[in-house]
């Protein structure tokens, strides 16, 4: 217990540090999720039941920070590096007072029909912390929400750690997963991905326990339902798990298969009536309507976008518009593939070999179904396939840490630490004129 608490504190601190190095709204769709959260806070609309094309939500607040001319320079995708915030501008932003609206105001958001679990958890956490702290500026309120998200994510990562230990895996896998810079970057943002990633990994582990260790299927299907009540994109978990049932069919008894089918069916029915029928996901595309493409053209497009996918998996910051040179991410990818080969050539033990084999199958099925969904909706919303969407199945690559070579494990983890440092430094240099001095100014104004 003491070890888990200490680990939770370390993960939380790591995430909070990442939360400080980026201004508000500088993560994918963070503004959209902030508006969705404010709508929950304003009226506790668990599910909006909106028409499919309605992308506006009413909130009892004035979002001054987003529309402020000083911050507006960096809230869009067209931000140029010469427009950094100087200390005077940053101090001005840090002191913008929050205020409630006299009447509800409508704000456009791409997250209008997102499920409510993440936002409700954030709302209740804020209610609890409001008994001890009452931030006055909009910047400090926004940062508090990020910190609460870090806490929720850290708690879920402890569940991942506990379950990895139960299946006989070392903490190297957990360390590798957490040191992927995209994990703390997303986990320190107001974004459902922060809790979807560890929940997706729990689905993967519970699925392994069921298929290879004879455990009950209830945990697998329950976590799958929770993932789908966090983010619509998690729907690909269902076909992934159903196909795995066919692959591992001979390894299970009939009662286990019937039980899994029953629980999975109930999970799908609950999801359908609670989520898909009541409030279907909104499909939209900003810009020109995408053209119809053949499957061959789509595969060719994916190949040309492979560098973007790797950047999105290892470290595309802001609105995915900056990071490190692509060769840093190629090195990490080749390093991971090399470790996977070593793992299968000389496995440590039978259990780790079985887990590695299962994780690879799961990972490729998950990616295949994600690509399939992306292709199916391409003519509606264009290609939305990004590297970060592979993170809920990242154990399929983390098995590189199961190899026998301690030198390899130490070298790869050291490389990931280097990536974290380089990307943290890139972030503060991208946004702030005074670089790390600006982080000191934020800490001084908000925490001291």
Would you write up a description of this structure?
The chain has 448 residues and is an all-alpha fold. The protein is 63% helix and 2% strand. It has helices at residues 2-20, 30-43, 64-67, 69-72, 87-94, 117-129, 138-166, 171-179, 182-187, 193-213, 218-228, 237-247, 254-276, 295-304, 306-314, 326-345, 350-376, 378-381, 395-398, 406-431, 436-447; strands at 56-59, 105-108. It has a two-stranded antiparallel sheet. Helix 5 packs parallel to helix 21 (436-447). The chain is globular, with a radius of gyration of 22 Å. It starts with a helix and ends with a helix.
Number of helices: 21
Helix content: 55-70%
Order of helices and strands: HHEHHHEHHHHHHHHHHHHHHHH
Mean pLDDT over the full residue set: 85
Q: What distance lies between the first and last C-alpha atoms, to the nearest angstrom?
A: 32 Å
The coarse overall form would be globular
Number of strands: 2
Uncertain spans: 77-81
| Cross-sheet strand order for the largest sheet | 1-2
Largest sheet: 2 strands, antiparallel
Strand content: under 5%
Radius of gyration: 22 Å
Q: Based on helices, strands and strand pairing, what is the structural class?
A: mainly alpha
Topology diagram in text:
Elements: H1 2-20, H2 30-43, E1 56-59, H3 64-67, H4 69-72, H5 87-94, E2 105-108, H6 117-129, H7 138-166, H8 171-179, H9 182-187, H10 193-213, H11 218-228, H12 237-247, H13 254-276, H14 295-304, H15 306-314, H16 326-345, H17 350-376, H18 378-381, H19 395-398, H20 406-431, H21 436-447
Antiparallel strand pairs: 1-2
